Amino acid sequence: MLLLFVKRASAKIPKIPHDGEGQLHMAFAITAESLDAWRSRLESLEIEIIETTRWERGGTSLYFRDPDGHLIELATPGLWSNY
User: What integer best gives the mean pLDDT of the chain?
Assistant: First the structure.
């Protein structure tokens, strides 16, 4: 599930504000089998892949920026002990 909020609209939530400022980072889980398809899709849309990181546990992350400059990560299993 991805929830998107109008900027500052959720900053006044009484218990736990959900707001961010500046360029943010979001990661989305993908399967290892879909990594090449995602890479091809980004390239076909002329979206620059900033970095590909292969993690010690075997996972891979693709990083790119959205039109607002936010860092988007597509991550396969093997990044952390619980994923």
Answer: 87
